[in-house]
Amino acid sequence: MSSREKSRSALFAATAAVAVGVLVTACGGDSGDGGETSGTETTTTTETTVTETTSVTVSPPAETTAPGTTAPETTAPGDGTVEIPSPHAIPSPPAIPSPPAIPSPPAIPSPPPIPGIP
Q: Which PROSITE patterns match (predicted)?
């Protein structure tokens, strides 16, 4: 093992030791002998009770019909079919025009003659 590799492994070991020390310090809180630490803990609890009374009066909506709609009259009583009037004709949208023609590229000119070749 060369001196360069030895110094690199020593550097990695030192870096790992520092990282472990920081982790133990940050996550610590227990004493070193495993016992509990002495300290005072204070807990405060506050309860609040709110009573709210709300009364709502609901009345059924009045029966109304939309203007221009009437129930269709049946010709055969009790046959169980319902006729639904068709809505007024809705015009179809205008046709989509075809896209403009793509122009062809210009013709490639022939190269100039090479001098010295007949």
A: PROKAR_LIPOPROTEIN
The mean of the pLDDT values for the chain is 74
Looking at residue 97, its pLDDT comes to 92
Angle in degrees, CA 13, 29, 24, rounded to 5: 10
Helices and strands counted in the chain (H then E): 1, 0
Q: From CA 25, how far away is CA 44, in angstroms rounded?
A: 29
Phi–psi pair at 14, nearest 5 degrees: -65, -40
Handedness of CA 29, 32, 36, 37 (dihedral sign): negative
Question: Residue for token digits 């949208």?
Answer: 93
Single pTM value for the model: 0.23
Q: Is the pLDDT of residue 38 over 80?
A: no
Higher-confidence position of 64 and 101: 101
Please, are residues 72 and 83 in contact by the beta-carbon 8 Å criterion? yes
Spatial separation of the C-alpha atoms in residues 22 and 14, rounded to whole Å: 12
